Amino acid sequence: MRRRKCLFEAGSYRQHTEDRFLFRRDKAAARPDPCSEWDTFIDGRFTDQKKFCLNWLPVRYRPEAPKPEMWFRFLSDLFYEEDVEALQEFLGYTFLPTNKGQAMLIIIGKGGEGKSQIGIVLHEILGNSMNFGSFQKLAGNRFYPASQEGMLLLLDDDMGTDALTDTGVIKSIITAAGGFDRERKGKQSVQGRLYVRLIALSNAALSSLYDKSVAFYRRQLVILVKDKPKDRRDDPNIAEKMCREKEGIFLWCFAGLQRLIGQNYKFSVSPRMKANLEQIRRDADTVLDFYESEGYIRFEENTHATSVQLYRAYRRFCDDNAMAPVSQTTFTRRMKTDAEKLHIRHIKIHDRLGDNGRNGYEGVNVLINTDRDWK
Predict the structure, then answer these.
(1) CA within 13 Å, CB half, 131
(2) What is 285-366's CATH topology?
(3) Beta-strand relationship, 104-108 and 220-224
(4) What are the structural domain ranges in the chain?
(5) Which residues have a Cβ under 8 Å from the Cβ of 327 and sit 6 or more positions away?
(6) 34-93, pLDDT tens digit by residue?
(7) Which positions ≥6 away from 97 have C-beta within 8 Å?
(8) Are 23 and 38 in contact (CB under 8 A)?
(9) What does the DSSP 8-state code read for residue 252?
(10) What is the pLDDT of residues 347-361, one digit of tens each?
(11) Residue 98 has what pLDDT?
């Protein structure tokens, strides 16, 4: 079995290319021989060489396939027009075993819009190369990533709202270019390659308890869907109807993949998507809100404040605005990280001659009285 490398791995490791995938040219056979499939390249070339592929796609490639009109109406009803290009590119991105895009897709709605139908259609195109699962489980269960080996897509069709306690695994999977440590129960962990892409359908944004870094948020493509019209009558068979258009949907996704590769794996992020992500980042970052608040601190020359005073002012700000504050350790670490951007400087503040001094910052002044909080 070790010699039966999937086509993607052969292309990636032996020929240094990740620009091809398999599809079924003829679905007449009930049990098609995986070695009789055709090999297609991004530029449309074919070869009839017999290959074994772990990730063959159960869809026929027919350039003359009719346009998927129902799929287009579904997209028009669900998404804003300016966001559709990025969606098209990411769905096509799931066809290849590569993490070059270094992004995950999160589709957010209030519920009932029909976004879960996307997962059904994708599964019809990707077949056994797609898993349904949980991002929370992926982040918190050390054995779960091993189950994604050889998968093109993991889709969480109802992502939980609980904040992640650790984002390291998800970030590593999104950007993994080399080996990834995979561990199975009762077995020694081994290095392997994970190229699974991540899509989440949710009613809320993906958040983290501790990771508020730019690196965490820049890996997210966030699309907010349209609200469901009050007078809309849902079609319970819409998924099945769209699946009958899968050859045309495949061509539409394929066009997005070609565009993405032509853009050097840079997604066509719309201004709306950028604004969505920035708002999500700000909503989750109470420290950033504190920096920009009025009446608690002021950044100005020839002033200073101790780290304790700054944290107490931050706690007061959170209490006044019904926000959950971060710990003092996290706040202190964040202040050190942001010092240069805020044009402040870490110093030792001495109250009297000869003392060891207290940690603080020059260039920021606390405007409220924090003395009453001293113990």
Answers:
(1) 18
(2) Arc Repressor Mutant, subunit A (1.10.10)
(3) parallel
(4) 69-282, 285-366
(5) none
(6) 333 445 555 555 555 656 667 888 888 888 999 999 999 999 999 999 999 999 999 999
(7) 6, 8, 9, 12, 18, 55, 152, 195
(8) yes
(9) H
(10) 998 876 667 788 999
(11) 87
Q: Are 324 and 286 in contact (CB under 8 A)?
A: yes
Q: Which two tokens stand for residue 252?
A: 């539409």
Which candidate, 190, 202, 95, places its Cα nearest to that of 151?
95
pTM of the model: 0.77
Phi, psi of 273 (to 5 degrees): -65, -40
Which CATH homologous superfamily contains domain 69-282?
Answer: P-loop containing nucleotide triphosphate hydrolases (3.40.50.300)
Other beta carbons within 10 Å of 139? 21
Q: What is the pLDDT of residues 277-322, one digit of tens each?
A: 888 888 888 898 999 999 999 999 999 999 999 999 999 999 999 8
Q: What is the pLDDT of residues 8-43, one digit of tens each?
A: 332 332 223 344 455 444 333 233 333 334 455 555
